[in-house]
Amino acid sequence: MSISTNITAPKMYWDSNKAIPHTCSVCGFLLRDDRDFETAKKTSTCCECADIYYYPNIDAWESGWRPNLRGKNESK
């Protein structure tokens, strides 16, 4: 037996020219609400990651820097 979950964004977040991500590019969690989707349009992150990583490091972010959270908790 398998369980499937269908997750869809509200229609206002679909853009025929560009797909809007449904997950945060930093932490990998699903975007939760309208605020997350609006932030993701600008930063590709959820609100929490934008507050922690994007805004304090905006110059480095614009230069291409990104935090590496996904590899941090992996054991060797």
Fold and architecture overview:
It is a single chain. The chain has 76 residues and is mostly helical. The chain has a domain at 20-62. The protein has helices spanning 34-43, 47-54, 58-62. α1 packs across α2 (47-54). The chain is globular, with a radius of gyration of 14 Å. The protein starts with 33 loop residues before the first helix and ends in a 14-residue tail after the last helix.
What are the secondary-structure elements, in order, as H or E? HHH
Mean pLDDT: 79
What is the beta-strand fraction? under 5%
**End-to-end distance, in Å?**
33 Å
Low-confidence stretches: none
Biggest β-sheet strands, sense, barrel: none
DSSP strand count: 0
| Fraction of helical residues | 25-40%
Number of helices: 3
How big is the Rg?
A: 14 Å
The helix/strand class is mainly alpha
General form = globular
Short key terms for the protein model shown above:
30% helix, single chain, 3 helices, mainly alpha, 76 residues
List the helices and strands and how they pair.
Blueprint: H1 34-43, H2 47-54, H3 58-62
Helix pairs in contact: 1-2
Summarize the structure.
With about 80 residues, this protein is mainly α. It has helices at about 35-45, 45-55, 60.
